[in-house]
Write a structure and sequence with these properties.
Elements lengths: L12 E8 L17 E2 L6 E4 L22 E10 L1 E8 L7 E9 L31 E5 L5 E9 L4 E8 L5 E9 L3 E2 L8 E3 L3 E2 L4 E5 L7 E6 L3 E3 L5 E2 L8 E9 L2 E2 L3 E5 L1 E2 L4 E4 L3 E4 L5 E7 L2 E4 L7 E3 L4 E7 L13 E3 L12 E4 L6 E6 L6 E7 L4 E7 L3 E5 L6 E9 L2 E9 L1
Parallel strand pairs: 1-5, 2-4, 13-21
Antiparallel strand pairs: 1-10, 3-10, 4-9, 4-11, 5-8, 6-7, 6-9, 12-14, 14-17, 15-16, 15-18, 18-19, 18-20, 22-23, 23-26, 24-25, 24-27, 27-28, 29-30, 30-33, 31-32, 31-34, 34-35
Length: about 425
């Protein structure tokens, strides 16, 4: 019966994500034998199909902890840089039960007729080494009901091969995505002809280039991607890319009528920032970090030194915009320009309404010249959201702002005589 042991700390981590495709009746039988195992490497993100409706695993090998091996899919890897490896396999959803058995090391090549190991050993459903493995040349095995499995390969050396059989116990059409996320070791990608890549991350407006690293003479190529993208070029491009072009791109190479497993690459395109005007004189970018604000006058653009927050308060009538530089060194196009007219903000006599201290930490004092039974105080954040509203019936009122986050705010004083607005800072 399947069980679920605990999870210790992992050493080297490779991520496999099994993504549900919902393709009824599709039979992935190309790699259901050890002799037809597909190669994989961790130099990019790869997608390979799991076996579906393809019978049980071949007789001969020792499958160690596995009680059954339905829908087998076989893969092999070759070690480039030495070290411990840990492979994480995650089902496409909570119902995708996958199991595995891994054998090795083999030199100089995988040995399908020499897959030996202890029979009936415990299922090792955990990160790190355990379960009595290695045993014979079985390095790890799990027969757990979970959609998450870990395969631990210890002390791998350059040039060694390992065989991995993934059993698609749920019998659901899936693709298997391979991507290395940490660790000193690596696998040899030279054995995979269809290594693909892109020139991202990019900013909106730049050209996205998709490339095949190791093209094959006479091959044809089929690309699909976000925003309805398709192409049959080997190395297609998308000029003036936008954020809608971000996402996973899939390429299938066909050689002599035989389609290879699909491979994938992730594209990131950062959007051009958008600025909105709040309360007549406050500009807010939709990008939280990396802003640099500019003012445009008759002589051109003026960099506002030190103004790099998400918001900017204008004190001069004119046009304003922002440019965003992200942590990857990508610099965006200029945002939309906002015209600010500094006039008529404080229609009420400033002596009738004062606030202090400014900046304030916990309490803001509101002071008016005379009591007014119809006076109302409203406080807004920089996005124009109303945070508090109360009547002012005394000449001096204390307002608790201790729960406000640090930043700029507006205090609006309204009577039957008019409206006065003051900016203040919460420290």
């Amino acid at each position: 019966m399947k069980n679920k042991p605990s999870r210790p700390t992992m050493i080297f981590y490779l991520s496999f994500v099994l993504v549900l495709l919902f393709i009824p009746g599709r039979n992935f039988s190309q790699n259901n034998l050890c002799s037809t195992a597909f190669p994989f490497c961790t130099g990019s993100t790869y997608s390979y199909p799991a076996g579906v409706n393809s019978g049980t695993a071949q007789a001969g090998p020792s499958y160690s902890c596995l009680g059954s091996e339905p829908n087998p899919a076989w893969y092999y890897l070759k070690i480039a840089n030495p070290g411990n490896l840990e492979i994480k396999m995650v089902g496409g959803n909570s119902t995708n039960d996958v199991d595995f058995c891994c054998w090795g090391p083999f030199t100089p090549s995988p040995a399908c007729d020499s897959l030996t190991g202890g029979v009936g050993l415990a299922s090792h459903h955990a990160s790190g080494q355990g379960g009595g493995y290695p045993s014979g040349n079985v390095v790890d095995c799990s027969y757990d009901v979970s959609s998450v499995e870990w395969c631990y390969i210890p002390n791998a050396y350059t040039g060694q091969y390992y065989l991995l059989m993934i059993s698609n116990y749920s019998n659901v059409p899936c693709n298997i995505f391979f991507s290395q996320v940490m660790g000193p070791g690596s696998t040899d990608c030279s054995m995979i002809a269809t290594l693909i890549a892109n020139n991202g991350p990019l900013c909106a407006g730049q050209t996205l280039n998709l490339t095949v690293g190791n093209p094959v003479n006479g091959a044809t190529y089929s690309w699909t991607g976000p925003n309805g993208f398709t192409s049959t070029l080997m190395n297609p491009s998308i000029p003036n890319a936008t954020n809608a072009n971000s996402g996973i791109y899939t390429m299938i190479m066909t050689v002599n009528g035989q389609a290879d497993p699909p491979v994938q690459t992730m594209v990131t395109i950062f959007p051009t920032p958008v600025v909105t005007l709040v309360n007549n004189d406050s500009l807010v970018s939709n990008v939280p970090l990396g802003n640099q604000w500019y003012y445009r006058d008759s002589l051109g653009n003026v960099l506002l030194v030190g103004d790099t927050l998400q918001y900017y308060i204008a004190y001069t009538t004119g046009y304003y915009f922002t440019v965003v530089a992200d942590t990857n060194g990508c610099i965006s196009d200029t945002s939309n320009m906002i015209y600010v007219q500094i006039a008529g903000i404080n229609e009420y006599n400033p002596r009738d309404f004062n606030i202090f201290p400014n900046p304030a930490q916990n309490n803001l004092i509101i002071e008016t010249a005379t009591p007014n039974k119809v006076a109302t105080l409203s406080i807004y954040n920089i996005q124009g959201q109303l945070l508090s509203k109360q009547a002012l019936i005394q000449t001096k009122t204390s307002v608790d702002i201790s729960n406000f986050v640090k930043g700029f705010y507006y205090a609006t004083f309204q009577t039957d005589k008019g409206i006065a607005t003051r900016r203040f800072i919460k420290e």
